[in-house]
From TrEMBL:
Domain of life (superkingdom): Bacteria
Keywords: Membrane, Transmembrane, Transmembrane helix
Name under which the protein is recorded: DUF883 domain-containing protein
TM region positions: 75-92
Length: 93
């Protein structure tokens, strides 16, 4: 009977120590996430936003450039589109 009480007490002590270690590890992981991961994600988001903005600006400029070329030389544009359509039709046959 004495052995059972000692074993039970030891098991409770080990369980308590394990819970404390888990809480300590949880706190350390949370601290690490807040110090390292969150700022890194913020930096990545800023870079992605900048890249999207730059891509949008370049795309808009290119669309405007092509539109201007089509307005200034509509017959050439129609010819180019016709040739591309013919080639795509020949390739897909």
């Amino acid at each position: 009977m004495l052995f059972c009480k000692k074993a039970t007490k030891k098991a409770k002590t080990v369980a308590s120590d394990t819970q404390e270690q888990i809480q300590t590890l949880r706190a350390q992981v949370e601290k690490l996430l807040n110090q390292k991961v969150t700022p890194a994600l913020g930096d990545v988001a800023d870079k992605a936003e900048t890249a999207v903005s730059t891509a949008r600006t370049v795309t808009n400029a290119q669309v405007e450039n092509v539109s201007e070329q089509v307005r200034s030389q509509p017959l050439v544009a129609i010819g180019i589109v016709a040739v591309i359509g013919y080639l795509v039709g020949r390739i897909l046959r």
